[in-house]
Structure formats: structure tokens, C-alpha cells
Write a structure and sequence with these properties.
Layout: H1 3-15, E1 22-23, H2 48-51, E2 62-70, E3 86-95, H3 100-114, E4 122-127, H4 137-146, E5 153-156, H5 158-161, E6 162-164, E7 177-187, E8 216-231, E9 234-248, H6 249-256, H7 266-278, H8 287-308, H9 317-335, H10 345-350, H11 363-393, H12 399-409, H13 413-422, H14 429-451, H15 463-483, E10 491-494, E11 499-504, H16 511-526, E12 531-537, H17 538-543, E13 557-563, E14 572-575, E15 590-599, E16 602-609
Helix pairs in contact: 3-4, 7-8, 8-9, 9-11, 11-12, 12-14, 15-16
Length: 610
Amino acid sequence: MTANEVRKKYLDFFKNPPRNHREIAPSPLVLENDPTTLFTSSGMQPLVPYLMGEPHPSKSKRLVNSQPSIRLQDIEEVGDNRHTTFFEMLGNWSLGDYFKKEQLAWIYEFFTKELVIDKDRLWISVFEGTSDVSKDTESFEIWKSLGIPEEKIIFYGAKKNWWSMTGTPEEMNIGHIGGPDSEIFYDFDPNGELKIHEKSIDKARPCHPNCECGRFLEIGNSVFIQYKKVGENKLEELPQKNVDFGGGLERTTAAVNNTPDIFLIDIFENVIKDICEKASYEYSQDQGKDRSVRIIADHLRAAIMLIRDGVTPSNKQQGYVLRRLVRRAEYYRQNLFLTAGEIQFSSLVKGFIKSYPELKTEWRKISAILDEEYIRFDLALQNGKKKLLKAIENRNVNGRLAFDLYQTDGFPLELTLDILEKEGKIFSDKDRKEFETEFAKHKQLSRTASAGIFKGGLADHSEEVVRLHTATHLLLASLRKVLGEHVVQKGQNITKERARFDFPNPEKLTNEELQRVEETINDVIKKDLQVKFKVMPKEDALKTGAIHAFNEKYADTVKVYYVGNSPEDAFSKEFCGGPHVRNTSEIGRAKIKKQEKIGSGLVRIYLVIE
């Protein structure tokens, strides 16, 4: 069964009676005017307001879609047989409608009847409870009634089977919502004949559904959002209990076809074949080479999807991630002893057209961007090698240098080690530990600042950052009032200390213009205006005159934040994901610290709160 067939079966199953879900359009991978995240990382991400009680514009309380997603925390794990950077998340939601009994029965029916997955290969996890939240015996009993043997229903703690935007019940912020979840795992080796666990690095530990040995693959997770944190160690039941289901399309397709390696499903079939033919290598014969093949295929697919959604390689934000993906794929291509003449990225792009027909009209443009980035990476490699050789000459090689080469020049650690070995130099255990320490910090930043749900884009969601975010909306509106409507946002970065805002203008502002802009911002702040948002269909939002990026793709439903009594008479209104202050008086006094010209027709302003 192909991935496209699995997707269609899922959407049809939940749209048909008696489930009667409304299919909603997926969001773009990049929401340019949503500073809370670099990428869409789940289908649930754009739906949080409705899970908290706002009515969905579709008027339906039952929703379903397949959401293209990217999760950066998986980049370094790619290379095994089950992790990917880009994936599609099959999702269905109940916004205060059905709950555990219906959800678990329906998803079990979908897997066992629609996809004809052997029920004897399914294992289940449920929440074991904490001192503050009771054990989820309800889900346990439902699974038993559906025919899952008791010994295949495993209880796990909050680290595994609890969802909230900020972690376990103890870690949740007051006011945040969350709840227990129940995962479904597919068992690739139910009788132990393949000895998957025994051959893994985890063989000394007991095997269980959440084991990393590769025997089990999570194919779906039903989250029951039923609690709100109202105080320290105190949660209350929500009046609206929600369901949020997510299941990876690629993983589900692998389970349907009983292949532990998701890179053997149809999506990757042509690309894997092309890479291996050019490398004169037969897939599945060598773990090291398999890893290289998977990384190339995965990173290129993710890069293709980002370029398709308008991202171009750069040293900032989404562009930096794209550049890193392409360069990492190129390094592993070289690791397979492939020269540029032996395989072109363009041929790999065409290998994905069967699964993504929309690429037919895009592949030439995408290929050109990928090939240009290859040339840039070759230059970066030469520069990086010079730095490393100079450090060797000066006896200044250490873990920090290796990490700087990784972060700045795109040098995988393996390349640094290769060069050191050729030069007869040793990378000590101390050096490796130093590299791993720096890398762990970097990875944690990726998790919390760019990959997690609503945990990126802004430096954080502290009071200072939120105040500056709202002040930046006032800055844009004030610039348009003083300079004209040609002013739009071309770039933005907000930390606790300052907001940085880029916009088009022929020259820097005069002192008088700067003063007028600053006074306009502070006049609005003093008026104690409310800051609100409305969720509406994109077409209706455009009619309000809300500021938005004209070359940006938006979901069919958007948030419009406005400053004032109503969108009609608002001082500022923009497409935005938030968060913002509730009243302008919360901001404090805004001060323009400096401005600078950063390119042809672009000006940058730095704004602080005093």
C-alpha cells in the first residue's frame, strides 16, 4: 500500500458517517508572520486556540487533515530506520465533542479494518498517573474491551504519556492545558524470529514498546486534553474536553507494509534506488552506508519541501536550517564516494514526483537552488579545512573548535575526525566530551527555540519578549503612518533586551521622523488600548486590511491581532500567531535605540523598552 493510499483512506474514514469530520486545509511549513515557531511541527499547532474553547471558523467540532511538518530535533537522529526531518502528520480532533471511548474505538477500527493491520501486532501505552493526576484506567479498560490483551497495555509515567506545551503536570505553567495520552505501537518481531532487539545496542536492557531497539514503532498517539493548571500542583478538569490524534503517515505506511525501515516505503523508493545505483551499492548490506543513503534521501526531501514553500538558503532562521540540511546531505553524498558528476540533485528531486505530483512544475527551480547551494558548500568546506589545518599547525585543536566548524562551516564531526586522522592527530576523549557538551547546548536550543510546539521564533515567551513583540506591531503601524504604506516587515528578531525590525525605505529616517515614530508608539501605549485577536477565514482577514506578507503562503484560517476597540478602527492589525500583551499600558515606554542601513533600500531599527 502506498503512502498516498494510506492518506486517502485515513481522511475518508474520518470524513464518512458516523464520524463526520470536516477536512481542513493543512498549514504551510513556514508561517512568516507567526513569530512563535520556525516551522509547523504538528497538525495540532495551528489549532491550539480552538482546543482552548474558541469556535472553529468551519463551525465543526470534528476536524481532520494531513499536515506536512518539520521537527528539527530529529535531524541528528536521522540515519536510523525510523526518523525523518520532514513528515506528514495524520490528525483528527474533537473540540469538546467525542472523547476517549469514541476516539480509541475509531482509531483501532481504522488500523485493523481499513488498513488491515494484524491486531496481534499492536501494543498500547497509557498514563500511569502522578500524585496530582489520577491513573488513566478509563483508556486501559476501553483498550481491553476492544480486544487488546492486558499484558500488551503498558502504563508509563508523565515523561512518556502526558502532553502539554511545557511538559509534565509539574512542569506546566499556570493557565496551560494538557492531558494524558495513549500511544499505539506496531510490533515488527512478535515472535522474536528476527531478533531485532538482540541485535541492537539496547540488547542488555528489557525490551518494551518505548524501547529504541527498532522492534516497536509508534504509529499513533491520542491525546486527551482534559485539564488546566490553576495553581501550584493543582489541575482542574476542563469544561471542554478535547481529543488530539497524531499519526505519522510514513510510519503508518511502514507498518501497513510490515517493513521496519521507513525508507523502504514507496515515497523513498526511486530516490534510494538512484543513490545506490550511482554508488554501486546494494541497500541493506552495510549499516554505515545505509545511514548515509537515508540521510541524503531524508534531508533532500525536507529541503525540497522547504524550497517549495518559499524558503531559500541563508544564514538566518528557516534559511539556515535549509542550508544545513543541504550541506549535510552533500557531505554524506561525498561519504559514499559520489562526485558531483556521478549524481545530480536534480535527478533526486524527480524521484519524489511520483509521491508528490505538485513537484512536476517546481523541480527545475528547486534543482537549481540545490545545485547552487552545493557550490557554496564546496567553498565553505575549503574555508573550514583551512581553519582546521591552521589550528593543527598552532596545536589548537579541541572540542570547541570542532563544534565551531560544525556550526559555522557546516562541518560534520566525522569530517573533522577524517582530516585529523590524515594529519596524524588525535581527537582525545576530553575533546570529544567538550564537543558533545557544546552540541548538547545547541541541540537543546533547537528543541526549545525552534522545534517544539510554540517554543521558537521568539527568544522565549517571557514578559519582556511579549511586550517587545506587541511594541513591534506598534512600530510597524507608526512607521507606515510617518513614512507611508510602502513600509512592511522584511525581517524581525526579538530577545529580552531588544527588538530588531527590518523594513524597506530608500534612506535612513531623519531625526525628526525617528522622533515622530517614537512619539506615535508611546502615545498609543498611553491610551491603554486593548490588544485582541480574531480568528477568521483568510479571505475575510484580507478584506479587513490587516497587514500581511504579500508573497507568503497562509493557512485558510488565520489569526488577526489588532490594537484598539475593534478591527475596523484599530491602530494596528496584522496577521500574527501571538503572543501579545492584553493592554498597551503593559508595554512600558518604547525607545528607538538606533537605526542602520543594511542593504539596498533596507533599514533596520532597534527598539527597547525602558
